[in-house]
Specification:
Elements lengths: L17 E4 L17 E4 L14 E4 L16 E4 L17 E5 L15 E5 L23 E5 L3
Parallel strand pairs: 1-2, 2-3, 3-4, 4-5, 5-6, 6-7
């Protein structure tokens, strides 16, 4: 079987709700993500110019380390894995409930939304003890009910 390279998608289905792109899809998005999208997962370092206004869940895996655009107000779950180390866009959505970050993130966490319920900070599996958490956790929202820290602190 021949390997065929993946071509850029210029038009997505108008009613698309969930989109997962692995590291083999390495094209920028030219503001062409459908407005209907509520769940987006990316595992490459593409540049996101704009996110759909109804997005509820955004997962950016280990290969992603580009600045994020302004996040939609509807976003409830944001998963930023190991490599992400850019300042989070402000303001963060007021309805954000879950924030998952890699331990390489070393910027302030002082402006997290007051509705945040779960914060997870993780190191790399198997070697997470070599990472030291850089941002202070002194000003976390009082609404957090689950705090998971899987790195040296």
């Amino acid at each position: 079987m021949m390997n065929k390279s993946i071509k850029p998608i210029t038009i997505f289905p108008a009613n698309l709700k969930t989109l997962w792109l692995n590291e083999n899809y390495n094209y920028p998005f030219a503001n062409n993500l459908p407005l209907s999208l509520i769940d987006l997962t990316i595992n490459n370092n593409c540049y996101l110019q704009e996110l759909p206004p109804n997005l509820e869940s955004l997962t950016l895996h280990d290969k992603f380390n580009s600045p994020l655009p302004l996040l939609p107000i509807t976003l409830k779950h944001l998963y930023l894995h190991m490599q992400y180390n850019h300042i989070l866009p402000e303001p963060l959505p007021v309805h954000l409930q879950t924030l998952y970050m890699g331990a390489l993130y070393n910027h302030s966490l002082d402006n997290l939304p007051q509705g945040l319920l779960k914060l997870t900070i993780v190191g790399h599996p198997g070697i997470y003890t070599i990472y030291e958490l850089k941002p202070s956790l002194d000003n976390l929202p009082n609404t957090i009910i689950t705090l998971d820290i899987f790195c040296k602190y």
